[in-house]
Amino acid sequence: MSAAPHAAPAPLAARPSGPLAGRARIPGDKSISHRALLFGLLAIGETSVTGLLEGEDVLRTADAVRALGGVAERLGEGEWRVVGVGIGGLQQPAGVLDFGNAGTGSRLTMGVAASHPITATFDGDASLRKRPMRRIVDPLVRMGAEVVSEAEGGRLPLTIRGPRETAPIVYETPVPSAQIKSAVLLAGLNAPGKTTVIEQEASRDHTERLLRHFGAEVVVEPHGQHGRRITLTGQPELRAAPIAVPADPSSAAFPLVAALIVPGSDIVLDNVMVNPLRTGLFATLREMGADIEELNAREEGGETVADLRVRAGTLRGVDVPAERAPSMIDEYPVLAVAAAFASGETRMRGLHELRVKESDRLQAVADGLAAAGVGVRIEGDDLIVTGGNGEVRGGGTAATHLDHRIAMAFLVLGLAARAGMRVDDGTMIATSFPTFVPLMRELGGDIDAGLQGGGAGA
Ligand SMILES: O=C(O)C1=C[C@@H](OP(=O)(O)O)[C@@H](O)[C@H](O)C1
Ligand SMILES: C=C(OP(=O)(O)O)C(=O)O
Protein backbone atom coordinates (compact mmCIF):
# COMPACT_ATOMS: atom_id res chain seq x y z
CA MET A 1 0.00 0.00 0.00
CA SER A 2 1.50 3.37 -0.87
CA ALA A 3 0.36 6.73 0.46
CA ALA A 4 -1.83 8.65 -1.99
CA PRO A 5 0.39 10.90 -4.07
CA HIS A 6 0.47 14.46 -2.84
CA ALA A 7 -1.03 17.09 -5.19
CA ALA A 8 1.56 19.17 -7.04
CA PRO A 9 3.28 21.57 -4.63
CA ALA A 10 2.13 25.16 -4.97
CA PRO A 11 4.72 27.71 -3.83
CA LEU A 12 3.45 30.92 -2.27
CA ALA A 13 5.14 34.25 -1.64
CA ALA A 14 4.50 36.99 0.91
CA ARG A 15 5.80 40.50 0.38
CA PRO A 16 6.31 43.40 2.77
CA SER A 17 2.86 44.86 3.28
CA GLY A 18 1.27 48.08 4.46
CA PRO A 19 -0.63 48.11 7.77
CA LEU A 20 -3.17 45.29 8.15
CA ALA A 21 -6.67 46.55 8.92
CA GLY A 22 -10.24 45.32 9.25
CA ARG A 23 -12.20 42.48 10.86
CA ALA A 24 -11.80 38.85 10.00
CA ARG A 25 -13.78 35.70 10.61
CA ILE A 26 -11.51 32.80 11.44
CA PRO A 27 -12.79 29.29 10.59
CA GLY A 28 -14.03 26.85 13.22
CA ASP A 29 -11.78 25.15 15.72
CA LYS A 30 -10.18 22.02 14.29
CA SER A 31 -10.08 20.09 17.58
CA ILE A 32 -13.76 20.68 18.30
CA SER A 33 -14.75 20.01 14.68
CA HIS A 34 -13.22 16.51 14.65
CA ARG A 35 -14.84 15.79 18.00
CA ALA A 36 -18.25 17.16 16.95
CA LEU A 37 -18.39 14.60 14.14
CA LEU A 38 -17.18 11.69 16.29
CA PHE A 39 -19.52 12.48 19.19
CA GLY A 40 -22.34 12.80 16.65
CA LEU A 41 -21.46 9.30 15.44
CA LEU A 42 -21.56 7.83 18.95
CA ALA A 43 -24.78 9.57 19.99
CA ILE A 44 -28.33 8.47 19.49
CA GLY A 45 -30.24 10.96 17.36
CA GLU A 46 -29.27 13.87 15.17
CA THR A 47 -26.51 16.30 16.14
CA SER A 48 -26.57 19.64 14.37
CA VAL A 49 -23.25 21.42 14.05
CA THR A 50 -22.69 25.04 13.08
CA GLY A 51 -19.33 26.64 12.35
CA LEU A 52 -17.68 23.31 11.50
CA LEU A 53 -14.19 23.74 10.05
CA GLU A 54 -14.43 22.50 6.47
CA GLY A 55 -10.70 21.89 6.19
CA GLU A 56 -9.35 18.72 4.61
CA ASP A 57 -8.43 17.15 7.96
CA VAL A 58 -11.99 17.42 9.26
CA LEU A 59 -13.52 16.28 5.97
CA ARG A 60 -11.52 13.05 6.36
CA THR A 61 -13.12 12.51 9.74
CA ALA A 62 -16.54 13.07 8.13
CA ASP A 63 -15.65 10.34 5.60
CA ALA A 64 -14.69 8.02 8.48
CA VAL A 65 -18.00 8.72 10.27
CA ARG A 66 -19.83 7.58 7.13
CA ALA A 67 -17.61 4.53 6.73
CA LEU A 68 -18.42 3.53 10.33
CA GLY A 69 -22.17 3.71 9.71
CA GLY A 70 -23.12 7.28 10.63
CA VAL A 71 -24.56 10.07 8.53
CA ALA A 72 -22.48 13.23 8.13
CA GLU A 73 -24.18 15.61 5.78
CA ARG A 74 -23.34 19.17 4.83
CA LEU A 75 -26.38 21.45 4.83
CA GLY A 76 -24.68 24.80 4.20
CA GLU A 77 -21.47 26.68 4.99
CA GLY A 78 -20.17 25.10 8.20
CA GLU A 79 -23.62 23.66 8.86
CA TRP A 80 -23.77 19.91 9.22
CA ARG A 81 -26.08 17.20 10.49
CA VAL A 82 -24.67 14.03 11.98
CA VAL A 83 -26.86 11.02 12.67
CA GLY A 84 -25.29 8.62 15.12
CA VAL A 85 -25.34 4.87 15.55
CA GLY A 86 -24.94 4.95 19.35
CA ILE A 87 -22.10 3.52 21.44
CA GLY A 88 -21.61 -0.11 20.41
CA GLY A 89 -23.34 0.38 17.08
CA LEU A 90 -20.44 1.00 14.69
CA GLN A 91 -20.40 -0.90 11.43
CA GLN A 92 -17.42 -2.64 9.89
CA PRO A 93 -15.87 -0.14 7.42
CA ALA A 94 -15.76 -1.43 3.85
CA GLY A 95 -12.38 0.09 2.96
CA VAL A 96 -9.30 1.78 4.35
CA LEU A 97 -9.90 4.87 6.53
CA ASP A 98 -7.61 7.39 4.87
CA PHE A 99 -6.96 10.36 7.16
CA GLY A 100 -4.70 12.30 4.80
CA ASN A 101 -2.60 14.69 6.91
CA ALA A 102 -4.72 14.49 10.08
CA GLY A 103 -3.17 13.27 13.32
CA THR A 104 -6.18 14.19 15.44
CA GLY A 105 -8.74 12.60 13.13
CA SER A 106 -6.84 9.33 12.82
CA ARG A 107 -5.97 9.00 16.50
CA LEU A 108 -9.37 9.88 17.92
CA THR A 109 -11.12 7.62 15.42
CA MET A 110 -8.76 4.81 16.43
CA GLY A 111 -10.06 5.11 19.99
CA VAL A 112 -13.63 4.98 18.73
CA ALA A 113 -13.13 2.04 16.35
CA ALA A 114 -10.86 -0.09 18.55
CA SER A 115 -13.49 -0.29 21.28
CA HIS A 116 -15.91 -2.03 18.90
CA PRO A 117 -15.75 -5.60 17.56
CA ILE A 118 -14.75 -4.44 14.06
CA THR A 119 -11.50 -4.41 12.11
CA ALA A 120 -10.38 -1.04 10.74
CA THR A 121 -7.37 -0.05 8.66
CA PHE A 122 -5.97 3.46 9.10
CA ASP A 123 -3.76 5.21 6.58
CA GLY A 124 -2.65 8.70 5.68
CA ASP A 125 -0.28 10.79 3.59
CA ALA A 126 3.52 10.69 3.71
CA SER A 127 3.53 13.04 6.73
CA LEU A 128 0.98 11.06 8.76
CA ARG A 129 2.77 7.80 7.91
CA LYS A 130 5.83 9.10 9.76
CA ARG A 131 3.98 9.92 12.97
CA PRO A 132 4.03 7.65 16.02
CA MET A 133 0.87 5.62 16.60
CA ARG A 134 2.03 3.30 19.41
CA ARG A 135 1.21 6.07 21.88
CA ILE A 136 -2.44 5.52 20.89
CA VAL A 137 -2.36 1.80 20.22
CA ASP A 138 -0.63 0.81 23.50
CA PRO A 139 -3.50 1.85 25.79
CA LEU A 140 -6.05 0.50 23.30
CA VAL A 141 -4.32 -2.89 23.39
CA ARG A 142 -4.54 -2.77 27.18
CA MET A 143 -8.27 -2.23 26.73
CA GLY A 144 -8.48 -5.41 24.65
CA ALA A 145 -7.80 -4.33 21.07
CA GLU A 146 -5.45 -6.28 18.84
CA VAL A 147 -3.05 -4.88 16.26
CA VAL A 148 -3.50 -6.99 13.12
CA SER A 149 -0.74 -5.25 11.18
CA GLU A 150 1.27 -2.04 11.28
CA ALA A 151 4.15 -0.43 9.43
CA GLU A 152 7.60 -0.44 10.99
CA GLY A 153 7.87 1.42 14.27
CA GLY A 154 4.11 1.27 14.93
CA ARG A 155 3.15 3.58 12.09
CA LEU A 156 0.42 3.76 9.45
CA PRO A 157 -0.88 1.87 7.58
CA LEU A 158 -2.18 0.10 10.65
CA THR A 159 -5.02 -2.37 11.10
CA ILE A 160 -6.62 -2.76 14.50
CA ARG A 161 -9.37 -5.08 15.71
CA GLY A 162 -11.53 -4.28 18.70
CA PRO A 163 -12.55 -6.80 21.36
CA ARG A 164 -16.03 -8.15 22.04
CA GLU A 165 -15.91 -6.32 25.36
CA THR A 166 -13.61 -3.36 25.94
CA ALA A 167 -11.91 -3.26 29.36
CA PRO A 168 -11.81 0.00 31.32
CA ILE A 169 -8.29 1.06 32.41
CA VAL A 170 -6.43 3.59 34.47
CA TYR A 171 -3.90 5.15 32.12
CA GLU A 172 -1.22 7.74 32.67
CA THR A 173 -0.24 9.38 29.40
CA PRO A 174 3.52 9.21 28.72
CA VAL A 175 3.51 12.72 27.20
CA PRO A 176 0.98 15.51 27.62
CA SER A 177 -1.32 14.84 24.65
CA ALA A 178 -5.00 15.55 24.20
CA GLN A 179 -5.00 13.04 21.36
CA ILE A 180 -3.87 10.17 23.60
CA LYS A 181 -6.23 11.25 26.39
CA SER A 182 -9.14 11.52 23.97
CA ALA A 183 -8.49 8.19 22.26
CA VAL A 184 -8.57 6.42 25.66
CA LEU A 185 -11.68 8.27 26.84
CA LEU A 186 -13.51 7.65 23.56
CA ALA A 187 -12.65 3.94 23.83
CA GLY A 188 -13.73 4.06 27.49
CA LEU A 189 -17.19 5.08 26.35
CA ASN A 190 -17.75 1.48 25.25
CA ALA A 191 -16.19 -0.12 28.35
CA PRO A 192 -18.25 -1.13 31.39
CA GLY A 193 -17.07 0.71 34.50
CA LYS A 194 -14.72 3.60 34.96
CA THR A 195 -11.89 4.59 32.62
CA THR A 196 -9.35 7.00 34.08
CA VAL A 197 -6.72 9.06 32.30
CA ILE A 198 -4.00 10.81 34.28
CA GLU A 199 -1.95 13.54 32.71
CA GLN A 200 1.02 15.30 34.31
CA GLU A 201 0.28 18.50 32.39
CA ALA A 202 -3.28 19.47 31.54
CA SER A 203 -3.94 19.28 27.81
CA ARG A 204 -6.89 20.77 25.90
CA ASP A 205 -10.16 19.61 27.44
CA HIS A 206 -12.62 19.67 24.55
CA THR A 207 -13.30 15.93 24.83
CA GLU A 208 -14.21 16.22 28.51
CA ARG A 209 -16.49 19.19 27.80
CA LEU A 210 -18.24 17.39 24.95
CA LEU A 211 -18.63 14.18 26.96
CA ARG A 212 -20.61 16.18 29.51
CA HIS A 213 -22.49 18.08 26.79
CA PHE A 214 -23.67 14.72 25.39
CA GLY A 215 -24.71 13.44 28.81
CA ALA A 216 -21.78 11.31 29.99
CA GLU A 217 -20.53 11.37 33.58
CA VAL A 218 -16.97 12.74 33.81
CA VAL A 219 -15.07 13.68 36.96
CA VAL A 220 -12.01 15.91 36.58
CA GLU A 221 -9.64 16.28 39.55
CA PRO A 222 -6.34 18.10 39.86
CA HIS A 223 -3.24 15.88 39.75
CA GLY A 224 0.16 17.07 40.92
CA GLN A 225 1.22 20.62 40.15
CA HIS A 226 -0.10 21.03 36.61
CA GLY A 227 -1.91 17.77 35.86
CA ARG A 228 -5.38 16.28 35.88
CA ARG A 229 -7.08 12.98 36.58
CA ILE A 230 -10.14 12.40 34.39
CA THR A 231 -12.59 9.62 35.15
CA LEU A 232 -15.35 8.62 32.77
CA THR A 233 -18.21 6.26 33.57
CA GLY A 234 -18.49 3.94 30.57
CA GLN A 235 -21.46 2.90 28.45
CA PRO A 236 -23.64 5.95 28.98
CA GLU A 237 -26.29 6.72 26.43
CA LEU A 238 -24.94 9.72 24.56
CA ARG A 239 -27.76 12.00 23.51
CA ALA A 240 -27.37 14.09 20.36
CA ALA A 241 -26.81 17.75 21.27
CA PRO A 242 -26.25 20.83 19.09
CA ILE A 243 -22.67 22.10 18.77
CA ALA A 244 -21.64 25.66 17.83
CA VAL A 245 -17.95 25.53 16.94
CA PRO A 246 -16.08 28.72 17.91
CA ALA A 247 -13.23 30.17 15.81
CA ASP A 248 -9.92 28.34 16.14
CA PRO A 249 -7.33 30.18 18.27
CA SER A 250 -4.59 28.16 16.57
CA SER A 251 -5.66 29.60 13.20
CA ALA A 252 -6.26 33.08 14.63
CA ALA A 253 -2.61 33.00 15.71
CA PHE A 254 -1.42 33.69 12.16
CA PRO A 255 -3.25 36.96 11.36
CA LEU A 256 -2.75 37.93 15.00
CA VAL A 257 1.05 37.70 14.84
CA ALA A 258 1.00 39.31 11.39
CA ALA A 259 -0.83 42.31 12.87
CA LEU A 260 1.73 42.55 15.69
CA ILE A 261 4.75 42.66 13.37
CA VAL A 262 3.47 44.66 10.38
CA PRO A 263 3.88 48.26 11.59
CA GLY A 264 0.70 50.29 11.95
CA SER A 265 -1.66 47.30 11.86
CA ASP A 266 -4.95 47.28 13.79
CA ILE A 267 -7.30 44.33 13.26
CA VAL A 268 -10.17 42.50 14.99
CA LEU A 269 -10.59 38.72 14.89
CA ASP A 270 -14.17 37.73 15.69
CA ASN A 271 -15.48 35.04 18.01
CA VAL A 272 -12.16 33.38 18.89
CA MET A 273 -12.20 30.63 21.52
CA VAL A 274 -10.18 31.70 24.58
CA ASN A 275 -10.21 28.41 26.52
CA PRO A 276 -7.21 28.79 28.89
CA LEU A 277 -5.88 25.40 27.80
CA ARG A 278 -5.48 26.85 24.28
CA THR A 279 -4.27 30.39 24.86
CA GLY A 280 -0.65 29.99 25.92
CA LEU A 281 0.36 31.94 22.82
CA PHE A 282 -1.74 34.96 23.76
CA ALA A 283 -0.28 34.95 27.28
CA THR A 284 3.26 34.69 25.91
CA LEU A 285 2.77 37.46 23.37
CA ARG A 286 1.37 39.69 26.10
CA GLU A 287 4.49 39.03 28.17
CA MET A 288 6.44 40.14 25.09
CA GLY A 289 4.53 43.43 25.18
CA ALA A 290 1.85 42.68 22.58
CA ASP A 291 -1.35 44.69 22.51
CA ILE A 292 -4.11 42.05 22.38
CA GLU A 293 -7.47 43.09 23.76
CA GLU A 294 -10.29 40.63 24.43
CA LEU A 295 -13.55 42.37 23.62
CA ASN A 296 -17.06 41.20 24.35
CA ALA A 297 -16.05 37.95 26.10
CA ARG A 298 -19.03 35.61 26.26
CA GLU A 299 -20.00 31.96 26.70
CA GLU A 300 -20.95 30.17 23.52
CA GLY A 301 -21.55 26.45 23.16
CA GLY A 302 -19.73 25.62 26.39
CA GLU A 303 -16.59 27.64 25.55
CA THR A 304 -15.58 31.24 26.27
CA VAL A 305 -15.14 33.29 23.10
CA ALA A 306 -14.06 36.87 22.54
CA ASP A 307 -13.30 39.27 19.70
CA LEU A 308 -9.57 39.96 19.67
CA ARG A 309 -8.35 43.44 18.83
CA VAL A 310 -4.68 43.37 17.91
CA ARG A 311 -2.45 46.35 17.30
CA ALA A 312 1.14 46.40 16.07
CA GLY A 313 3.89 47.39 18.49
CA THR A 314 7.35 46.53 19.67
CA LEU A 315 7.96 43.11 21.20
CA ARG A 316 10.68 41.93 23.59
CA GLY A 317 12.15 38.46 23.92
CA VAL A 318 10.99 36.20 26.76
CA ASP A 319 11.67 32.82 28.32
CA VAL A 320 8.74 30.47 27.67
CA PRO A 321 8.48 27.73 30.32
CA ALA A 322 8.14 24.10 29.23
CA GLU A 323 4.94 23.61 31.23
CA ARG A 324 3.18 26.11 29.00
CA ALA A 325 3.76 23.96 25.91
CA PRO A 326 0.49 21.97 25.96
CA SER A 327 -1.55 25.19 25.88
CA MET A 328 0.22 26.43 22.76
CA ILE A 329 1.72 23.32 21.20
CA ASP A 330 0.68 24.20 17.63
CA GLU A 331 1.61 27.87 17.99
CA TYR A 332 5.41 27.62 18.33
CA PRO A 333 6.15 28.12 14.61
CA VAL A 334 4.33 31.45 14.58
CA LEU A 335 5.62 32.42 18.05
CA ALA A 336 9.14 31.89 16.68
CA VAL A 337 8.26 34.32 13.89
CA ALA A 338 7.08 36.91 16.43
CA ALA A 339 10.32 36.32 18.35
CA ALA A 340 12.33 37.05 15.19
CA PHE A 341 10.91 40.59 15.23
CA ALA A 342 11.30 41.14 18.99
CA SER A 343 14.24 42.73 20.75
CA GLY A 344 16.60 40.30 22.47
CA GLU A 345 16.45 36.56 22.78
CA THR A 346 13.40 34.33 23.13
CA ARG A 347 13.94 30.88 24.57
CA MET A 348 11.13 28.35 24.07
CA ARG A 349 11.65 25.39 26.37
CA GLY A 350 10.67 21.75 26.28
CA LEU A 351 9.63 21.37 22.64
CA HIS A 352 10.32 17.64 22.10
CA GLU A 353 6.72 17.04 20.97
CA LEU A 354 7.29 19.43 18.04
CA ARG A 355 9.48 16.76 16.49
CA VAL A 356 6.48 14.45 15.87
CA LYS A 357 3.93 16.81 14.36
CA GLU A 358 3.14 17.08 10.62
CA SER A 359 6.89 17.69 10.26
CA ASP A 360 9.80 17.96 12.66
CA ARG A 361 8.70 21.47 13.53
CA LEU A 362 11.69 22.24 15.70
CA GLN A 363 14.02 21.69 12.75
CA ALA A 364 11.67 23.16 10.13
CA VAL A 365 11.29 26.40 12.12
CA ALA A 366 15.04 26.67 12.72
CA ASP A 367 15.80 26.04 9.03
CA GLY A 368 13.18 28.52 7.82
CA LEU A 369 14.35 31.25 10.21
CA ALA A 370 17.95 30.67 9.15
CA ALA A 371 16.86 31.00 5.49
CA ALA A 372 15.28 34.35 6.45
CA GLY A 373 18.53 35.55 8.01
CA VAL A 374 17.34 35.19 11.61
CA GLY A 375 19.70 34.07 14.39
CA VAL A 376 18.36 30.76 15.69
CA ARG A 377 19.63 27.67 17.45
CA ILE A 378 18.34 24.46 18.97
CA GLU A 379 19.71 23.38 22.37
CA GLY A 380 18.29 20.00 23.36
CA ASP A 381 14.52 20.53 23.32
CA ASP A 382 14.78 24.33 23.42
CA LEU A 383 14.50 26.73 20.52
CA ILE A 384 16.33 30.03 20.87
CA VAL A 385 15.61 32.91 18.52
CA THR A 386 17.58 36.16 18.43
CA GLY A 387 15.20 38.97 17.59
CA GLY A 388 16.02 41.64 15.02
CA ASN A 389 14.18 44.41 16.86
CA GLY A 390 11.64 44.89 14.08
CA GLU A 391 14.12 44.13 11.30
CA VAL A 392 14.26 40.78 9.53
CA ARG A 393 15.99 40.31 6.19
CA GLY A 394 13.76 37.58 4.73
CA GLY A 395 14.04 36.80 1.04
CA GLY A 396 14.57 33.07 1.39
CA THR A 397 12.35 30.03 0.85
CA ALA A 398 11.05 27.97 3.75
CA ALA A 399 10.71 24.22 3.19
CA THR A 400 7.30 23.21 4.53
CA HIS A 401 7.53 19.38 4.63
CA LEU A 402 3.74 18.88 4.19
CA ASP A 403 3.14 21.06 7.25
CA HIS A 404 0.38 23.70 7.15
CA ARG A 405 1.64 25.59 10.19
CA ILE A 406 5.17 25.94 8.81
CA ALA A 407 3.72 27.32 5.56
CA MET A 408 1.48 29.89 7.30
CA ALA A 409 4.15 30.94 9.83
CA PHE A 410 6.69 31.81 7.14
CA LEU A 411 4.13 33.64 5.00
CA VAL A 412 3.40 35.76 8.07
CA LEU A 413 7.12 36.43 8.42
CA GLY A 414 7.25 37.51 4.76
CA LEU A 415 4.64 40.23 5.31
CA ALA A 416 7.02 42.10 7.62
CA ALA A 417 10.49 41.03 6.42
CA ARG A 418 12.48 43.43 4.21
CA ALA A 419 12.66 41.05 1.24
CA GLY A 420 9.46 39.06 1.89
CA MET A 421 9.52 35.26 2.10
CA ARG A 422 8.54 32.29 -0.02
CA VAL A 423 7.30 28.88 1.02
CA ASP A 424 7.87 25.89 -1.23
CA ASP A 425 4.33 24.53 -0.89
CA GLY A 426 1.10 26.08 0.36
CA THR A 427 -1.25 23.19 -0.44
CA MET A 428 -1.35 21.85 3.13
CA ILE A 429 -2.82 25.13 4.42
CA ALA A 430 -6.18 23.70 3.28
CA THR A 431 -6.00 21.05 6.02
CA SER A 432 -6.74 23.55 8.80
CA PHE A 433 -7.30 27.05 7.36
CA PRO A 434 -8.61 26.87 3.80
CA THR A 435 -9.42 30.60 3.71
CA PHE A 436 -6.00 31.73 4.97
CA VAL A 437 -4.71 33.38 1.79
CA PRO A 438 -7.89 35.30 0.85
CA LEU A 439 -8.41 36.32 4.49
CA MET A 440 -4.88 37.68 4.80
CA ARG A 441 -5.24 39.49 1.48
CA GLU A 442 -8.53 41.00 2.65
CA LEU A 443 -6.70 42.40 5.71
CA GLY A 444 -4.10 43.92 3.37
CA GLY A 445 -1.43 41.21 3.35
CA ASP A 446 0.39 40.78 0.06
CA ILE A 447 0.39 37.00 -0.44
CA ASP A 448 0.11 35.25 -3.78
CA ALA A 449 1.58 32.50 -5.92
CA GLY A 450 4.73 34.60 -6.17
CA LEU A 451 4.87 34.57 -9.95
CA GLN A 452 5.20 38.31 -10.53
CA GLY A 453 8.52 40.13 -10.14
CA GLY A 454 9.79 41.93 -7.06
CA GLY A 455 9.86 40.86 -3.45
CA ALA A 456 10.04 37.37 -2.10
CA GLY A 457 12.31 35.06 -3.95
CA ALA A 458 11.57 36.64 -7.32
O1 LIG B 1 -6.52 16.81 20.55
C1 LIG B 1 -6.37 17.65 19.64
O2 LIG B 1 -7.34 18.11 19.00
C2 LIG B 1 -5.00 18.10 19.32
C3 LIG B 1 -3.97 17.85 20.18
C4 LIG B 1 -2.58 18.25 19.94
O3 LIG B 1 -1.82 17.10 19.64
P1 LIG B 1 -1.17 16.16 20.78
O4 LIG B 1 -2.25 15.45 21.48
O5 LIG B 1 -0.30 15.20 20.01
O6 LIG B 1 -0.36 17.06 21.65
C5 LIG B 1 -2.45 19.24 18.80
O7 LIG B 1 -1.12 19.30 18.36
C6 LIG B 1 -3.35 18.91 17.63
O8 LIG B 1 -3.26 19.86 16.61
C7 LIG B 1 -4.79 18.85 18.07
C1 LIG C 1 -0.48 18.97 15.04
C2 LIG C 1 -1.53 19.36 14.34
O1 LIG C 1 -2.56 18.58 13.92
P1 LIG C 1 -2.76 17.01 13.87
O2 LIG C 1 -1.99 16.38 14.98
O3 LIG C 1 -4.23 16.82 13.96
O4 LIG C 1 -2.26 16.54 12.51
C3 LIG C 1 -1.73 20.80 13.99
O5 LIG C 1 -2.80 21.12 13.49
O6 LIG C 1 -0.83 21.64 14.18
TrEMBL record:
Keywords: Amino-acid biosynthesis, Aromatic amino acid biosynthesis, Cytoplasm, Transferase
Region (Disordered): 1-26
Major subcellular site: cytoplasm
Protein residues bound to phosphoenolpyruvate: 30, 103, 131, 179, 361, 405
Localization per record: Cytoplasm
Catalytic activity reported: 3-phosphoshikimate + phosphoenolpyruvate = 5-O-(1-carboxyvinyl)-3-phosphoshikimate + phosphate
Positions annotated as active site in the UniProt record: 330
EC number annotated for this UniProt entry: 2.5.1.19
Residues binding 3-phosphoshikimate: 30-31, 35, 177, 179, 330, 357
Ranges for domain Enolpyruvate transferase: 16-438
Biased composition, class Low complexity, residue ranges: 1-22
Secreted in keyword set: no
MF GO annotations: 3-phosphoshikimate 1-carboxyvinyltransferase activity
Pathway where it operates: Metabolic intermediate biosynthesis; chorismate biosynthesis; chorismate from D-erythrose 4-phosphate and phosphoenolpyruvate: step 6/7
NCBIfam families: aroA (TIGR01356)
Biological function: Catalyzes the transfer of the enolpyruvyl moiety of phosphoenolpyruvate (PEP) to the 5-hydroxyl of shikimate-3-phosphate (S3P) to produce enolpyruvyl shikimate-3-phosphate and inorganic phosphate.
Family assignment from sequence similarity: Belongs to the EPSP synthase family.
Binding partners and assembly: Monomer.
Protein name according to UniProt: 3-phosphoshikimate 1-carboxyvinyltransferase
